[in-house]
Design a protein that fits this description.
Number of helices: 2
Largest sheet: none
Strand content: under 5%
Oligomer: single chain
Distance between the termini: 58 Å
Number of strands: 0
Structural class: mainly alpha
Length: 83
Amino acid sequence: MQFDEQSEDFYFGEEPVDDRVGVSLQESERSLLDAATRILAARITAKGQASGPISNEDIKESVATAIKMARFIDKTVRADKEQ
């Protein structure tokens, strides 16, 4: 499949601006993000909000719950390489 080349005026004289946010998560942060997204999905399902915007409060509570769970696990479980 070939793509047509865009003319120079494709951007209407303006170059696109890359204003994306860069994110680099450590392994522990990715684990918490995974847990928080599952908690958030469960909250949304429980509320019956399958569509529509997600509230900032729901996100904050889901992240806080994931952090509380991680802290509890860290205090009660010895990791493989911990002494």
